[in-house]
Amino acid sequence: MRVTKLALENFRSYAQVELSLARGAVAFIGPNGAGKTNLLEAIHLIARGDSPRAHDDTEMVRWGATTARVGTEVDRAEDHRRVETLLFAPPEGERRRPRRYLLDGAGKRSEDIAGELVVVAFFPEDVELLAAAPSGRRRFLDAMLGQIDRAHRREMRELQRVLEQRNALLRVAREELELPEEEMAFWDRELVRLAAAISLRRSRLVADLAVPFVRATELFTGAEGLALAYAGQVEGDTLEERAIEYQRVLREKRDRERWQGASLVGPQRDDLAVTSAGRMLPAFASRGEHRSAVLSLKIAEAAWLASRVGEQPVFLLDDVLSELDPTRREALARAIPEDAQVLLTAAIPTALPDMLRERATVVPVQRGEVG
Fold first, then answer.
1. Tell me: the pLDDT tens digits for 88-100?
2. Sign of CA dihedral 214, 220, 224, 229
C-alpha cells in the first residue's frame, strides 16, 4: 500500500500543491515552520478521519478561505483508489458545514472510507503516550480499530451521543433530585450495548498486540520485560457476558452517578496498561524506557494492521527521529519493513538514520512550497 499522489487546496499553509510520491522512503526536508508536518497531517486526515493536532476543521482551512480539500491517490494490492476530504470554515454567523468524503468521486460517509488508506503515525507528542492521560491511549486503540473496522467508527460516534444524553439526564437528577427513569433506562440499554461491543473489540485488539509488542521490545534498549493489558471495568469473552457485567456495574454506581451528574460506566473509563513485573510503566520508567515502549507499540501496531489488510501500512514519521537517541533511531529504521512506504520529515538530511537516508527520495519544503 502506498500514497502515489497528494493534492492540497487551501489546507493549512498551502494554497495549492500537487505531489507525486515515490515508493519506499520519502523525506520532506526543510526548516521549522516550513509546512512539512502539514503534509503528513493531510494524509493522516484521509486515513484516520482526524488530525493529530487540530481540534476543529477550521484550524486546517487556510486563513481567508472557506473550503479546503485534501486528495490522495492510493495504490493497494488489489486496486487503485482516489480518496478526498473537504473541510469547511464558513464565515462568522453562517451555519457550520460537516465534512464531505469522496471515494473515486462519489460521496461517502466517514466509515465508508475506513481501510482505503492505512497508516502508522508517529508524531512528536506520541513519545508521551504512556505518561499522558488514559484518554490518549484509548484514542490510540480506537484509531487503530477505526482504520479497518467501520462498525467501530460508527459505534464510537453513537457512544458519544449516548453519553451526552445520559449526562444531561444525570445533571438534571443532581440539580432537581428527580430522574426520568423511563428515559434513563433507554439510554442505559444503549450504553450497555455499545460499551460491550467497543470494550470487547479493544480487549481483543490488545490481546493480539501482546506478542508482537513483546517481540518489538527486543529491538529497543531499555524496553525489556514489558507486557500489555486492557484495563477495563468489565471482563468477558462474549458480548453477552460483557453486557451482563456492565449492567451490574451500572447498578453499583447508580447513586454515585446521580451525585456527580456524570456517566461513570463505559469504555470511556478504560485504559491500555503497559507493565513491567506487575508495575505500571509510568510509575518508575525513565524517559528513554518510555520512548522504547512507545516505539514497540508502534511496531506492534504496524504488524497488526498488516495482518488485517494483507499488506504493509504507510508509515508517517514527523520529526520523531530527532527525538530519539542514535541507537533507537537506527533500531526504528531497521524495524520498518523494506517494502513499506515511509513518509517522514526532518530539518536536515543528516538527521535521518543512514539506513533511511540512503534509500530516501528527498523533497525540499519551503514556506507554502514543496519540491
1. 998 877 888 889 9
2. negative
